[in-house]
Queue: 2 jobs
Job 1
Amino acid sequence: MPRLFLSGGVQDKRTEHKMDAILNWLINDVPANALAGLQFEATRYATGTLGVFFGIWIFLEPLLKSRKIRKPTPRRRQIQMELFNSFKTICVFVALDIAIFDVAQAGVFKKYDDIAEYGQLWYWLSIPVAILLHDTYFYWAHRAMHHPKLFKTFHLTHHRSHNPTPFTAYSFAVGEAVVMYAFVPLMMLIMPIHGSALVIVLLIMIFKNALGHCGYELFPRGTTHHPILKHMTTITHHDMHHERANGNYGFYFTWWDKLMGTEHPDYEARFDAVTARRSRKIAPQTA
């Protein structure tokens, strides 16, 4: 009988310790992690989208009128919708950040803090390697979300922006926000990356995302025929994806689309027409 009481007492203490740990996590860790996540995600989003909006749509717009891929420019109502969806996306990212902070502290990921641990060479190499991995992940995840059984749940919200703006970058349904977020923890499971290198990669992501939706072609004439530049996705490349709601699934590079036959066959001609407008006075196409 005493053993039963002792066993029960030990079990009660263990349960009490678990409850204390959970309460401590809820009271201290969750708010701290949520605040840190909100500060980072909101700052990253604002830096990328507002930077592109003011830089391209406001300051450089008079110089880029002939490079507007399609007209008319989206109305205020669309931008309001995109900002609302972006707020939801940031909330999803922050919620996932809370869990990721704890997983990271448990040593599950290969993120490190001392550059000397892997050296300067890997520090700088890890950035393009991460971009290459993200490009592959994005192509296949993006293409999968266009499957008829997945499109409405995951990707339709994003495509409500038929003629995109810089704020389309985060205009996701909750499911798509989770899919987009998932790349980072998956990458950190398999690849060592320094914390500051990861921040650089994440900033490149948002700037590329906002630029890809800006609606103004920024690449120089002849890009699609250049031996190196032709492998990069132009603004026209992704704009055609929004216009037609299929094909041109790549994020940074065109090679997956070319390899898998998903690049629009008239992409190069469309790009050439857009970039020739200044000299030939070709009017922008209407949406």
Job 2
Amino acid sequence: MNFLKFLVLGLAGLLGMPLFAQEARGPIRLNYRGREVHFPEDAREFKGWRHYGHNTPLWQVSAELPKDVFTFARLRYPYRRGGRWTADYPEADLNFSFRLHQLTSVQVNPYPVILEIEEKQLRHHPFLYISEPGHMDITTAQAGVLRDYMLKGGFIMIDDFWGNDEWKGFQAAFKKIWPDRGYEELKPEHPIFHCVYDLPSPPQVHSNVYWQEMNQRGTTTMRNEYLPESATPHFRAVFDDRHRMVMLICLNNDLGDGWEQEQSDPWYFTHVSEKHAYPLGINIVFYVLTH
């Protein structure tokens, strides 16, 4: 990978909560296409569907501060038919954790986690990733837990949804979380696009299937990714009363696919994963952990 290696020092001391303090979690199981799927503690051992996560390297964290590390945490949320919190799992979680470890000096936990909407779990993880929120179906009580998590120091990144229909589908959950607070559209000059990697413009990350079809025949069947309203990426941020960013909504984007599918073909890795998905992901982590 041709990234410029960037030193990121002392992030833990800048946070109001530790970067990592593992809580005991119960087993997670769900029905997938008629069979029960188990989510093990080590995502490399996941066997629920086709994946190559077992190829992700392991690495050692600091022996002096073994729990003072960044952990990629994915939220498990209730959803209506058509949505899924598991999108791009486990490669996205594993690959991003590895690249963050490889390309920066941040101490990174090699074991990403899945969290429930429970205060006792969320409070130990300042960064939370949500995928495919267009059909999220949380209760008012769950929305309150997520709101309190963010206002007490946490951050939520929302990714992998496209177009007006999926945005409208997410708005019901957004209004439950923020009944009296809105979002701000980030401009291209916002520091989050320039703090580690200087991105010339806010990027758009399409799926590997979209680019395979476009490169082969100039058209794609990925309907949600080529709708007119999907053409422009939107980065919508929510800030607390101190103007700390507590939520970033990456609409018309799929950074998770850029992480998950880095091995799908060399062209996709070079032009999407390496050029857009990883630089922006690293920028987001660096920005939110230092502001």
